[in-house]
Amino acid sequence: MKVDCCTNTVERVEEKMFEEVTSRTDLEIFNSIWKESFTKENYELGECEGPATRYLVKNAEGETNGTVEIIPYSMDKERSTVEDMFLFSSLDMTKKTSLQHIYEIDKLSVGKYKKTGTLENILDVLLYFAKQHNVHYYYALINPLLFRALKITYGFPVEKAGKLIKTDDYIIQPMFIDMQKTLLTPTWKEKKISQT
After folding, report:
1. In this predicted structure, what is the pLDDT of residue 10?
2. To the nearest whole number, what is the mean pLDDT of the chain?
3. What total of structural domains would you count in the chain?
4. Strand segments (E) across the chain
5. pTM confidence score
6. What pLDDT, in 10s, does the model give residues 107-165?
7. Residue 192 has pLDDT above 50, yes or no
8. Long-range pairs for 15-20 at CB < 8 Å and ≥24 separation?
9. Is the pLDDT assigned to residue 98 strictly greater than 90?
């Protein structure tokens, strides 16, 4: 918080806890974080060939410790990071929404050390990007434990898009976030503040 002594007003100053990947060095850091995390979980290490917005995310101590990649949704299984494992294109919301308002979440990862605050800041990235790009829905394939943490621990409005998908190496949950609904309701942070 910042206090202005002349006017006795209090202004909340919040350091930006994420930054967009804009340089080769940023991309190397981004790749090292998500690849280590995905290797540990036996996830595929596929690279996005098309347009993507990537973010480096900080933990509560301000150290870069997480990643998230946001990609325009595609029904094309060759270009999509999600459509080849779950047919999001079959959902009513996909059929009723212009594809320019749907995005895929990929490479959502939290580094192995000093995790506190990283996931919360990744959620802030999703909110920030949704406001900037008029996102109606995010689609993703995520670890079921992460899905549960987002929904129950953080109160973030993630919803199951279908049943769990089991492969030989891992289990994933197809999910979506209705961002128009999310942006109109108090965020998990606001709910937490109002309860104190």
Report:
1. 34
2. 84
3. 1
4. 2-4, 9-11, 18-20, 53-58, 64-72, 102-110, 137-142, 158-160, 165-166, 171-178
5. 0.84
6. 998 877 667 778 888 989 999 999 999 999 999 999 999 999 888 888 888 999 999 99
7. no
8. 15/62, 17/57, 17/58, 17/62, 17/117, 17/121, 17/124, 18/55, 18/56, 18/57, 18/58, 18/121, 18/122, 18/124, 18/125, 18/128, 19/55, 19/56, 20/53, 20/54, 20/55
9. yes
193 belongs to a structural domain? no
136's CB contacts (< 8 A; 6+ apart) are 97, 101, 102, 178, 179, 180
Q: Which of 140, 92, 120, 136 is nearest to 189 (CA)?
A: 120
Q: Is residue 4 part of a domain?
A: no
6 in a structural domain: no
Quote the DSSP letter at residue 150.
I
Tell me which residue range forms the domain holding 70.
15-185
CATH number, domain at 68? 3.40.630.30
So what's the pLDDT on residue 114?
66
